[in-house]
DNA sequence: TTACCATCAC
């Protein structure tokens, strides 16, 4: 019997096992009377979890009498990674009241689960437990806490935890640096990067990841390039992980050439590297190349996952060409992932944006599980087609399903009101959003509200809404208001706004463009000239040349 | 045997 054990053991340590092979291994373990051994049980449980078979994983857990902490951690992690947080927390509680002691990995895992479900209160409770269990100085727990607090935007608390550790290890330094990165506090991140080197800690590729994730616009390109240069100079190992981050960073900064060079430096790019390249091109507005590289990936035998399929669908939605979208739909069906919630939502959006609302609705109706994003997608699609009543009905359905609407839901609803000119409904949703759901109105919501009111001729109300906002008001909100004044030929109010803007914010491009067009349309060349003078004062701060071109056209 | 770190649909 022992002859069989060695090959089984070697199979158990391979992470890439399919579900059917896992079942065979499980049967072999049982046959060899090893299923009660927590070591073997843990191995099999993890294989089930990797293959998304939580039912078998749980069955195995329940059937194993001697539960090691490894087995406990594995089942808690399996549920958390599948976003089944309630089960995860219930098991965590059961563990605490059992005879087995939780260890640092248990807390790291459960802290991450709190973060994934955006539960600050629970995270604080877990933090308390960490201290209570005497793990207050543990590196694993604390690096998890640092990254969890900063992912929830509480970078001060993260920093507090970090400062409480005497001689942080590399993981802790990295967690803190990427914490600053994800909170947009780039300066602090770079300061810390310097400090760590001053105390003799050598950064690795992940330190660099922390520094450059989130570098989003071309003005920061030089920061990214400097850090990339640093990696090369210090001979840091640029693995797939790090290269993927570099690729997306360069693409976000619209530096396609450098992105492609980094990608090409990989001997065998993995799925995430391909995804970074493809989604990066798409997000930079180059959807054609995004689809091209997707075909390249299929050509070399790559197997795109659901995340990548959703992104390529978004690319064809942006192009508003249905053919590639249909092909991807077919691919998804052939590979059994068309029912995936991410892919389905992307399909709905793609069909709607390409002019096939019916098909989108069909996909929505066929979904077995729906989340906020699926509802948001279908609501905004219906709204775009002017089917406001249907969109509102979907919103009701969503509430009945106990799904909590978010800011995108309300943006979609307000957009639907806008497309159908439903002022009262729009006011009501706006009120509901701020008062009942405590969602802070963003630029997008305000633009819809201003348009909705303004297009209906309620210019005063729209103006009062904008005036009530804290300064500085985003230029697209002013733009929406000005274009409403323009189309209603309310030059009196336009004058008032123009005066206000020229006194307070003469530097923003978009409403100057609008104003110059309005003035030019009226033949008021003196005013156009005045704007030009203002532009001169603000020179160097203006983002583009479109405005000056508009002026030149007008003057001609 | 596990931790911190990459692509992400509206």
UniProtKB/TrEMBL annotation:
Keywords (A to Z) from UniProt: Repeat
Listed InterPro entries: E_motif (IPR046848), PPR_At4g14850-like_plant (IPR046960), PPR_rpt (IPR002885), TPR-like_helical_dom_sf (IPR011990)
Record bears the keyword Repeat: yes
Pfam family, one: PPR_2
Positions annotated as PPR repeat: 68-102, 169-203, 270-304, 371-405, 406-436
GO biological process: RNA modification
MF terms in GO: RNA binding
Gene3D superfamilies: Tetratricopeptide repeat domain
Presence of the UniProt keyword Ribosomal protein in the record: no
The protein's name: Uncharacterized protein
Organism listed in the record: Handroanthus impetiginosus
């Amino acid at each position: 019997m022992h002859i069989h054990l060695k090959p089984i053991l070697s199979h158990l340590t391979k992470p890439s096992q399919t579900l059917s092979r896992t079942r065979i291994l499980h049967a072999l373990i049982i046959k060899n009377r090893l299923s009660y051994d927590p070591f073997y049980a843990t191995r099999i449980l993890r294989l089930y979890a990797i293959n998304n078979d939580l039912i078998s994983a749980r069955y195995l857990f329940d059937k194993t009498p001697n539960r090691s902490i490894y087995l406990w951690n594995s089942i808690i992690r399996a549920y958390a990674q599948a976003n089944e947080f309630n089960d995860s927390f219930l098991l965590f509680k059961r563990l605490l009241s059992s005879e087995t002691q939780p260890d640092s990995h248990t807390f790291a895992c459960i802290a991450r689960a709190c973060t994934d479900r955006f539960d600050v209160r629970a995270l604080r409770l877990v933090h308390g437990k960490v201290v209570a269990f005497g793990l207050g100085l543990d590196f694993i727990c604390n690096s998890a806490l640092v990254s969890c607090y900063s992912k929830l935007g509480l970078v001060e608390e993260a920093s507090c935890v970090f400062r409480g550790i005497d001689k942080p290890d590399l993981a802790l330094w990295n967690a803190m640096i990427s914490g600053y990165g994800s909170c947009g506090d780039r300066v602090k991140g770079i300061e810390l990067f310097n400090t760590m080197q001053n105390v003799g800690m050598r950064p690795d590729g992940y330190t660099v990841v922390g520094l450059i994730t989130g570098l989003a616009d071309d003005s920061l390109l030089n920061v990214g390039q400097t850090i990339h240069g640093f990696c090369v100079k210090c001979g840091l190992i640029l693995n797939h992980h790090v290269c993927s981050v570099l690729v997306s960073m360069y693409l976000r900064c619209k530096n396609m050439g450098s992105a492609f060079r980094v990608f090409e430096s990989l001997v065998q790019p993995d799925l995430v590297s391909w995804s970074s390249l493809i989604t990066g091109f798409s997000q930079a507005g180059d959807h054609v190349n995004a689809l091209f590289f997707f075909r390249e990936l299929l050509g070399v035998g790559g197997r795109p996952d659901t995340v990548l399929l959703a992104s390529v669908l978004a690319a064809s939605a942006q192009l508003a060409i249905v053919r590639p979208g249909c092909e991807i739909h077919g691919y998804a069906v052939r590979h059994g992932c068309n029912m995936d919630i991410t892919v389905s939502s992307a399909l709905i959006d793609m069909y709607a944006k390409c002019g096939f609302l019916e098909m989108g609705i069909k996909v929505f109706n066929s979904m077995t599980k729906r989340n906020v994003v699926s509802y948001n997608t279908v609501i905004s699609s219906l709204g775009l087609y002017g089917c406001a009543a249907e969109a509102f009905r979907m919103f009701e359905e969503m509430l009945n399903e106990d799904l909590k609407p978010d800011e995108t839901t309300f943006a979609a609803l307000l957009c639907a009101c806008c497309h159908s000119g439903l002022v009262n409904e729009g006011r009501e949703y706006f009120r509901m959003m701020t008062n009942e759901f405590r969602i802070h109105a963003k630029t997008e919501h305000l633009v819809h509200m201003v348009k909705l009111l303004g297009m209906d001729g309620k210019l005063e109300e729209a103006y009062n809404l904008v005036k009530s906002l804290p300064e500085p008001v985003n230029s697209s909100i002013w733009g929406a208001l000005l274009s409403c004044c323009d189309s209603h030929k309310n030059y009196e109010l336009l004058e008032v706004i123009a005066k206000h803007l020229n006194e307070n914010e003469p530097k923003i491009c978009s409403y100057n463009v609008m104003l110059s067009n309005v003035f030019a349309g009226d033949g008021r060349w003196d005013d156009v000239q005045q704007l030009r003078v203002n532009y001169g004062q603000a020179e160097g701060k203006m983002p583009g040349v479109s405005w000056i071109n508009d002026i030149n056209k007008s003057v001609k």
